[in-house]
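Q: Predict the bound structure with flavin mononucleotide.
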Amino acid sequence: MYKQLIRPILFRFSAERAHNMTLKLLRFARRIPLCANMAKLIFRRKSQSLQIEVFGIKFPNPVGLAAGIDKNGETYNELAWFGFSFIEIGSLTPEPQPGNPKPRLFRLPQDKALINRMGINNKGINYAIDHIMKDKPKVILCASIAKNSTSASDEDIVNDYKRAFSRMYDFVDMFTVNVSCPNVEGLQNLQDVSYLSDVIDPLLDLRICYDKYKPLLVKVSPDIPREELDEILNYCMLSGVDGIVAGNTTTSREGLVTNQARVEKIGKGGLSGAPLFERSLELVKYIHQYTNGRLPIVGVGGIMGPEQAKLMMDAGASLIELCTGFIYEGPSAVKKILKHLR
Ligand SMILES: Cc1cc2nc3c(=O)[nH]c(=O)nc-3n(C[C@H](O)[C@H](O)[C@H](O)COP(=O)(O)O)c2cc1C
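A: Predicted complex:
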């Protein structure tokens, strides 16, 4: 029904509008009696054999929702109806920010892909915290944190991550540090290990002050040169980082079937969805081999269905996440994957 009826209607609207409408609709649906229960009954799949413990957290299944869908942390409970065992909210910055000018999200239906240059638009950490306080999460929540686009000095950047981390600490179960978004000027420079350690070390120091241990992951780009990645992995294994999210969108346009003129007209942005899969899979394989499986990996990028999910887990991912696959395949995407993985 999603692909025949709902998706064609949604795809009549601009991609960003359709995204915002869907989230609003979900929050509205929650007020309709039995709606949540019906959705859970139809789309959720529970099984002992799918449970998995990673970095000390027991996940009901290995499939989560990637950052970028619930940017403001206001729809996690509704999105969990569709079987995700964890939801990554954000990326959230200390101060609200509008992101890049519109249009900034484009569909490439022939490729089952998206190109986005959203620029981490979000309502800020305080908004997310207010919402979490009002609507207690019924799903494992991961906060993706990032610096504000206006923060340019090393000191401001480090302070942004510290603020976001310490303010959110009591409200979520785990963190991803986003240093790999291609749509924010200078953000990917933080993948250079000397900068990365300046950002992560203070967070690891801060974590010691809290009673409860919350895992901290680093999200890397699939475009990162291997020598740079090796340095990151060495640092992560030595410093106490709990895992790697591999990875973000790519700036590559390789392998697209969409008309080249149209792709060029869209311009800059990160490509996600089916064409990203091979690149993400290689990244996961590489990290798994390089670290000898010592760093848990969240595999993300181009997982559209059961086949890619299984390949990603076979490559060494402990958990996987969907973003574009959820938009193209719809609400039963997770259930189909879990049926296969079981
Ligand atoms: C519209 C959109 C917004 C995104 N926003 C973020 C973000 O704020 N932070 C982040 O770490 N990743 C963000 N991503 C990247 C996704 O989390 C994911 O890493 C990427 O899209 C690859 O997965 P996919 O092929 O399943 O979409 C975004 C992706 C899309 C499509």
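A: The domain at 2-341 is CATH 3.20.20.70 (TIM Barrel).
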